[in-house]
Amino acid sequence: QFNVQADQPLKGKTILVTAGATREQIDPVRYLSNPSTGKMGYAVAEAATKKGAHVILITAPTNLTPPQFAEVVNVTSTKEMYDQVMENLNKAHIVVKTAAVSDYRPSTKFSSKLKKDDVNDDYQLSLVKNPDILKEVGKNKDGQIVVGFAAETDDILKNAKKKMKNKNTDMLIVNDISAKNAGFETDVNTVKILFLSGEIKELPTMSKTRLGDIIVDEIENCIYSDRP
Ligand code: CTP
Ligand code: CA
């Protein structure tokens, strides 16, 4: 028995979206991060609210305005993002992991500014691995549709397929970040979408706003794939 309103097909569904670049503090004035702007994740969040979903947007710092009706959870580090994702996971029907997280963090967070004259000229920063949020979500999912992203420069599809399997996702959106018009710091993106069935959709270059709509359409197809 399906009772889905045509214009609000995701009404009653909660979608957890992570976005932005996490920051790993080295000392009070320095951090490790990456150039992700958060645009892709915010576009997915916006597209999902338009379709009637309740959006929990777990976001690292960005310069963007969140969608009006989203429930926004602000985080900074990967560890904080991990904690918030795990805390909200059981409320979600869909998880989209757009955030560009740091794979490593400094093993020590200095509480005072590191002074350059106090360390050697070949000072080595020691790092430890962060939790893999998507992998943990994949491991602990309980009926949720899980959508991952991947950034690759070489052997794109081979690496992407491996990632999808390893992280137990239902869909994986792959960016070839060696290509023009893809990935970080642009308003457009060129991706391939991998599905659990083995199907691969190659999309043309398009705005992140448009791509957000398409990703949410694909999620909707996935949810209602058994719709008569
Ligand atoms: N991801 C995550 N937690 C991490 C690292 C990655 O949740 N600690 C998620 C990203 O949000 C993305 C997906 O995993 O949805 C793939 O990220 P990517 O950096 O492409 O892959 P990694 O598994 O980190 O492997 P590598 O960077 O070595 O390619
Ligand atoms: Ca990574």
From TrEMBL:
Q: Where is the DNA/pantothenate metabolism flavoprotein C-terminal domain?
A: 10-221
- Provide the alphabetized UniProt keywords: Decarboxylase, Flavoprotein, FMN, Ligase, Lyase, Magnesium, Metal-binding, Multifunctional enzyme
The cofactor note reads: Binds 1 FMN per subunit.
Any one cellular-component term (Gene Ontology): phosphopantothenoylcysteine decarboxylase complex
| Pathway annotation from the record | Cofactor biosynthesis; coenzyme A biosynthesis; CoA from (R)-pantothenate: step 3/5; Cofactor biosynthesis; coenzyme A biosynthesis; CoA from (R)-pantothenate: step 2/5
Report which reactions are catalysed by this protein: (R)-4'-phosphopantothenate + L-cysteine + CTP = N-[(R)-4-phosphopantothenoyl]-L-cysteine + CMP + diphosphate + H(+); N-[(R)-4-phosphopantothenoyl]-L-cysteine + H(+) = (R)-4'-phosphopantetheine + CO2
Entry EC number(s)? 4.1.1.36, 6.3.2.5
Its domain of life?
Bacteria
Q: What does this protein do?
A: Catalyzes two sequential steps in the biosynthesis of coenzyme A. In the first step cysteine is conjugated to 4'-phosphopantothenate to form 4-phosphopantothenoylcysteine. In the second step the latter compound is decarboxylated to form 4'-phosphopantotheine. Catalyzes two steps in the biosynthesis of coenzyme A. In the first step cysteine is conjugated to 4'-phosphopantothenate to form 4-phosphopantothenoylcysteine, in the latter compound is decarboxylated to form 4'-phosphopantotheine.
- Similarity annotation: In the C-terminal section; belongs to the PPC synthetase family.
Q: What is this protein called?
A: Coenzyme A biosynthesis bifunctional protein CoaBC
Q: What gene name is listed for this protein? A: coaBC
Q: Which residues of the full protein are shown?
A: 181 to 408 of 409
